[in-house]
Structure formats: C-alpha cells, structure tokens
C-alpha cells in the first residue's frame, strides 16, 4: 500500500470527536495484521484507546493481539516524572542549603501552563527514540487539533529556547575559566544536561521532519467547520515544515442510506466533498462511510479497519 503504510511513524490528528482514536486504532490493527510489529500510543489526556479495545491499557506497553501493542501516556504522571528527573539532574549541582528553595521553585514551575505539554512532548520523544528500533510502526492518537499542533511544533520552539540557554551557559563558563585564568574549560553538569536535552530534541525534530519516516494524517468529517479548521491546521503545520500527507474523511453517508432527509444531506455532503478535493490537492483523501452504529465492538473496528485498507489500496 503506497503512502499510508510505508512509513514508520504516524500522527493522527483532527478536531474533537471526528474519529481520530477510531482511525488510529484501525490503522494500527491494519498494520499489525499485515505482519508489522505495531505500537499504538495515545497522547490524548482523555484516553479512550482502552475503551475501543475493551481493555485497560495504561502507561506501560500492553500486548493486545499478535503484533499489536498499545500504551496511554498520562500527562499528570509524565509531569511528575519529568519534574523528578529535573530534580535528580540538579542533585549535587546546588548547595544543600538551597535544595529546598530550588525544589519549591521547580514544583511551582510544574503547575504553569505548558508544563504538561513539555512533559508530554518529552514522553513522546522518549518513545520515538527508544522504540523506533523495536517496532515497525508507531501510531500516535492525538488530542484535538490545537493541542496537537502545539505539541508537534514544540521541538522547534524548545530547540530555540535550549539553544539560548546553552549559549548563555557557555558564556558564563568562558567568563569563569578566564577568571580562573588557567584557560582550562570548567566542568559544568548543567551545561552537559542542557546539551543532552538539545541533542534529544534535535533527534526528534529530525524524525518528525523526515517525510520518508513520519506521516501526519488528519481525520475530518464532510462539514464546513471541520474543513476550515483542517485547512488552517495543514497550513500551520506546513509553516513548521511538517506536511499532512493523508486526510481521512470519516462518516461519509453511504450510498445505501435512503429517505428524503438523507438525500438532502447527501447533496450538501457532495458539495463539501468537492470543496475538499479542491482544497486538499496535495493530500491523499480517504473516504470512510458512516456506520449504522458507533464503532464500539472489536468487530465494528475490524470492519472500519477493512474500509481504511480498501480505501488506501484504491489510492495506492
Ligand atoms: N465511521 C463511523 N461511523 C459511525 N460511528 C463512528 C465512525 N467513526 C467514529 N465513530 C464514532 O464516533 C465517536 C467519536 O470517535 P472517536 O472517539 O474515534 O473520535 P476522536 O476524534 O478520537 O474524539 P476525541 O476528540 O474526543 O478524542 C465514537 O463514538 C466512534 O465510535
Ligand atoms: Mg480520541
């Protein structure tokens, strides 16, 4: 299958309730069935991948079927872990009389806006770097659009921020070694920690930018607002050199749906589908029908996943 399944990493984004989690689960299932060892990662704080598979998942990888593993990143837990690691990193670097005060400040920082996102991004980064050699495919189910975009553009922002910190630190060290007047570079664990962080984010950014490795998919439904929002999201990500290559147009009225009410809806929908063809020329558009019922059983998920497979095959 061209485009869809030849990449290793997929991020599934889109507006609230359009079918991101269902699509991410279906795509993971499809990959696993094709023999690829697949990891499905939920990064949405309101996890429902577990509900979709009718099982408890949690923060550790859980094997669901042959080749299919899933995990849910818990932002609160990640923030705690992240803060703990920051404290660990500082151990031995600061005077013991300052420890309490510094820890207080770090704890306050953990409650500021953006801390959860930084922790979540750190967790995604670790999964990408640690698991990319263990899995053939890694699929991320993300939270609604705005959140995802902020998250995906974080490595760029964090890169710039850390660069600034590294430079500042270097200057302090140079001044310090000049002051000591022996010209020897000073050992600085904070500088080393920052440098490591910088390398980690740079590695992740490289992965995200590599179009052969990473694909960004958006799910939307054929209505005016989701189209507008997706158009904006696609543009915004492109500004950060991230290209959405596939759109899953979900809940398209199936041909067999009849009645005059549905007929009228179908006409409107047809116009929106045409608008989408025009608006999203660079993307592969995959149509998935509206099912009679929500996708709440594994059988329904398999059916959904078959639809995705067929639609992709058609486009390949
Ligand atoms: N093609 C479809 N036909 C019928 N029901 C569907 C279809 N796709 C998704 N659903 C149902 O729509 C609801 C929303 O789907 P899902 O949870 O996958 O969306 P989401 O984008 O992940 O939502 P959120 O933004 O809340 O995470 C679910 O009840 C799901 O079973
Ligand atoms: Mg979801």
TrEMBL record:
Entry's transmembrane regions: none
Gene3D superfamilies, A to Z: P-loop containing nucleotide triphosphate hydrolases
Single GO term (MF): ATP binding
Domain ArsA/GET3 Anion-transporting ATPase-like: 9-307
InterPro entries found in the cross-reference section: ArsA/GET3_ATPase-like, ATPase_ArsA/GET3, P-loop_NTPase
Pfam families referenced in this protein's UniProt entry, alphabetically: ArsA_ATPase (PF02374)
Residue ranges the record marks as coiled coil: none
Keywords attached to this entry: ATP-binding, Nucleotide-binding
CDD domains for the chain: ArsA
Domain of life according to the entry: Bacteria
Family: Belongs to the arsA ATPase family.
Protein known as: Arsenite efflux ATP-binding protein ArsA (TC 3.A.4.1.1)
Provenance organism: Halalkalibacter nanhaiisediminis
């Amino acid at each position: 299958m061209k485009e869809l399944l030849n990449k290793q990493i997929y991020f599934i984004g889109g507006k609230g309730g359009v079918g991101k989690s269902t699509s991410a689960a279906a795509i993971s299932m499809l990959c696993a069935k094709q023999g690829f060892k697949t990891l499905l990662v939920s990064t949405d704080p309101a996890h429902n991948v577990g509900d979709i598979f009718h099982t408890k998942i949690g923060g550790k990888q859980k094997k669901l079927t042959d080749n299919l593993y899933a995990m849910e990143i818990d932002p609160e837990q990640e923030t705690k872990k992240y803060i703990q690691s920051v404290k660990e990193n500082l151990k031995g670097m600061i005077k013991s009389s300052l420890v309490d005060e510094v820890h207080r400040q770090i704890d306050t920082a953990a409650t500021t806006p953006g801390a959860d996102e930084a922790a979540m991004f750190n967790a995604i980064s670790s999964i990408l770097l640690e698991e990319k050699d263990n899995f053939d495919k890694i699929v991320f189910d993300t939270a609604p659009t705005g959140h995802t975009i902020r998250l995906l553009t974080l490595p760029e922002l964090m890169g710039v921020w850390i660069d600034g910190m590294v430079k500042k630190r270097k200057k302090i060290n140079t001044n310090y070694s000049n002051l000591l007047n022996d010209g020897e570079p000073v050992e600085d664990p904070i500088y080393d920690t920052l440098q490591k962080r910088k390398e980690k984010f740079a590695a992740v950014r490289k992965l995200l930018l590599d179009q052969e490795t990473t694909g960004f998919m958006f799910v939307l439904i054929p209505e005016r607002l989701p189209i507008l929002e997706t158009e904006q999201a696609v543009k915004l990500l492109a500004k950060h050199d991230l290209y959405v290559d596939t759109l899953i147009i979900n809940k398209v009225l199936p041909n067999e749906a009849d009645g005059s009410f549905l007929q009228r809806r179908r006409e409107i929908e047809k116009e929106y589908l045409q608008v989408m063809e025009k608006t999203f020329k660079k993307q592969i558009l995959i149509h998935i029908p509206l099912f009679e019922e929500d996708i709440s059983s594994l059988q329904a998920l398999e059916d959904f996943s078959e639809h995705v497979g067929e639609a992709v095959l058609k486009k390949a």
